[in-house]
Recover the amino acids of this structure.
């Protein structure tokens, strides 16, 4: 009659009867023999083993590793705990990142773009760029970050510096006005020349155009980004094509659709 029932053992240790039976099934805790009345009685040794297993499992040790850990010597035990700590740290970092993403989902911009980009979008609004153009820029940046992640941070730096130049901002606003023009409007060629000349005279600003060129599938990625949202045959499409042509004529590498 010495010892306690499985229900009492589970309650003392702080687990469920189902959990105790699962430990038995995995071979982590030896199942006591039945007494004369047919009950299995858990003595001090079994209870101690249950406490050890439950404690290691609660600390994050996978059940598959609990048995070998309990049977290991002091050095192996310490090394195994260090490895478990490393795994838990990685898991915590992963969960923290997921939590942060959930928080960012409350803000449509911050869910898909870094804080620097969000700040730049607000800056564009503050400079008088229309809301629909800021929204289109946001979508284009989400695409750019996905297609050329290795160059996106530098790209944002180039944009930050360019927005400090009133001439660049004025050209942006002029280009936005041009989206309402007819594709054959002669002013498009004049505007494209002005934009091209500005880029060529300001190499740091030119990197806004050349900086998002990936190492692989460069042409395809560039055109998906640079021509995002264009309608074929529109004033925007013709204007971009004219600027690209001027830059190519000056020796600037601008990927073509059929090249790499």
């Amino acid at each position: 009659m010495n010892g306690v029932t499985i229900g009492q053992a589970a309650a003392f240790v702080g687990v469920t009867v189902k959990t105790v039976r699962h430990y038995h099934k995995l071979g982590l805790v030896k199942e006591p023999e039945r007494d004369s009345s047919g009950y299995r009685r858990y003595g001090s040794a079994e209870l101690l083993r249950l406490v050890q297993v439950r404690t290691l499992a609660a600390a994050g040790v996978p059940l598959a590793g609990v048995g070998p850990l309990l049977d290991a010597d002091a050095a192996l035990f310490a090394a195994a705990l260090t490895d478990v700590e490393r795994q838990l740290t990685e898991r915590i970092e992963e969960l923290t990142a997921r939590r942060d993403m959930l928080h960012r989902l409350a803000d449509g911009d911050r869910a898909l773009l870094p804080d620097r980009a969000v700040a730049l979008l607000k800056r564009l609004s503050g400079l008088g760029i229309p809301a629909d153009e800021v929204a289109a820029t946001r979508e284009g940046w989400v695409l750019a970050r996905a297609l050329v992640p290795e160059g996106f941070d530098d790209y944002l730096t180039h944009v930050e510096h360019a927005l400090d130049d009133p001439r660049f901002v004025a050209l942006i606003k002029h280009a936005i006005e041009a989206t309402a023009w007819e594709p054959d409007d002669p002013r498009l060629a004049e505007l494209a020349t002005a934009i091209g000349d500005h880029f060529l005279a300001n190499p740091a600003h030119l990197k806004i155009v050349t900086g998002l060129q990936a190492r692989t599938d460069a042409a395809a990625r560039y055109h998906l980004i640079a021509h995002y949202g264009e309608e074929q045959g529109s004033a925007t499409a013709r204007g971009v094509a004219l600027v690209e042509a001027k830059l190519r004529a000056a020796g600037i590498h601008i990927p073509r659709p059929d090249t790499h």
Summary: The CA atoms of residues 10 and 47 lie 9 Å apart. The chain has two domains: 6-106, 108-250. The two ends are 82 Å apart (CA to CA).
